[in-house]
Amino acid sequence: MPSFSRLIRFLARDGRTYYGDAILPRGVTDISKARQARIVKGDIFGKHDVTDQIADIRMLLAPLAPEDVRTVRCLGLNYAAHAKESKMPIPQYPVLFYKPATSLTGPLDPIPVHPMAQQHTGLDYECELVAVIGKPCSDVPESRALDYVLGYAVGNDVSHRDWQIKLGGGQWSLGKGFDGWAPWGPGIVSPSIVQDPQALAIRTRVNGRTLQESTTADMIFGVAKTIAFLSQGTTLMPGDVIFTGTPQGVGMGRNPQLWLKDGDVVEVELEGVGTCTNKVEFSPARDAKL
Q1: 172 with 255: CB under 8 angstroms?
Q2: How far is Cα 267 from Cα 217, in angstroms, rounded to an integer?
Q3: Lowest mean pLDDT: which of 29-33, 166-170, 264-268?
Q4: pLDDT category of residue 1 using cuts at 50, 70 and 90
Q5: Sign of the CA dihedral 204, 207, 190, 62?
């Protein structure tokens, strides 16, 4: 398992794309502040080396290349205060849904809003701790579940509440699965650095205004319990990405409700990991090709 500290995937100034171990200034923990990285060679899920070759970062990309992603699992209603603001009971078991891999995008990429998602209200933000599985994991007990984690990132489970809840009979995957609706990163932090994923501050800012601020201690099902549960009868594989739910403060839970609009800048931040900063961009209408 990882010899890296803070795994990133980045476009270098030489025009090539690399995996790297982010180099941070002293006292800085936000990976988005990295300007250089040591190039990582080999299999990031297996034998790999953090080399002495240093490259300048032009742009941070999604932490895993598309070919290295298996599935994108997501939990709903996994913070006690969020369940309360949603006026829903505390779930007895993790509430699971999936996003397509095409929803994953980088920590600086725009959030594209397709015309289909512009026709109704309810465009919402959700800051989330993201856990990445590093080796095959099946029927593991909670006490050993974190041994299978490659590392941790932060992500935004962008959601459209009308499509998620009102339209089509409750389309969670549709309402949350548009292209580019899971920006994440800015890198994957090794468990050797984030030793307790249940003790991290997490927040969302929209246009500089803090709208979500909590701690992962409020999770109903912590990372270890989540992995143990999801691995029962289903093998989790290297490259499986797990969004672990959002705290209170989402737009849907506010009074009055607050929806994202074209041009808004959304920042999701996780202590010890860093920040994703993404601008909402409404896509122009185009003729459907049937």
Answers
A1: no
A2: 21
A3: 166-170
A4: low
A5: positive
- Rg of the chain over CA atoms, in angstroms? 18
The pLDDT of residue 220 is 98
Beta-carbon contacts of 27 under 8 Å, excluding residues fewer than 6 positions away, are none
Tell how strand 274-282 and strand 111-113 pair up: parallel
Taking CA 199 as the corner, what is the angle to CA 258 and CA 235, rounded to the nearest 5 degrees?
90
Tokens linked to 133: 């599985």
Which residue in this structure is represented by tokens 């998620």? 164
Q: What is the mean pLDDT of residues 88-117?
A: 95
Pair 23, 51: CB distance under 8 Å: no
Average pLDDT over all residues of the chain: 95
The 3-class secondary structure across the chain, one letter per residue, is CCCCCEEEEEEECCCCEEEEEEECCCCCCCHHHCCEEEEEEECCCCCEEEEEEEEEEEEEECCCCHHHCCCEEEEECCEHHHHHHCCCCCCCCCEEEEECHHHEECCCCCEEECHHHHCCCCEECCEEEEEEECCCECCCCHHHHHHHEEEEEEEECCEEHHHHHHHHHCCHHHHHCCCCCEEEEEEEECCCCCCCCCCCEEEEEECCEEEEEEEHHHECCCHHHHHHHHCCCCCECCCCEEECCCCCCCHHHCCCCCCCCCCCEEEEEECCCEEEEEEEEECCCCCCCC
The predicted pLDDT at position 290 comes to 40
Does residue 29 contact residue 20 with C-beta atoms inside 8 Å? no
Q: Give the number of other Cβ atoms within 10 Å of residue 107's Cβ.
A: 28
Name, in order, each residue with C-beta under 8 angstroms of 115's C-beta and a sequence gap of 6 or more.
283, 284, 285, 286
Look-up of token digits 């994703």: 276
d(CA 51, CA 273): 22
CA–CA distance, 144 with 227 (Å, rounded to integer):
10
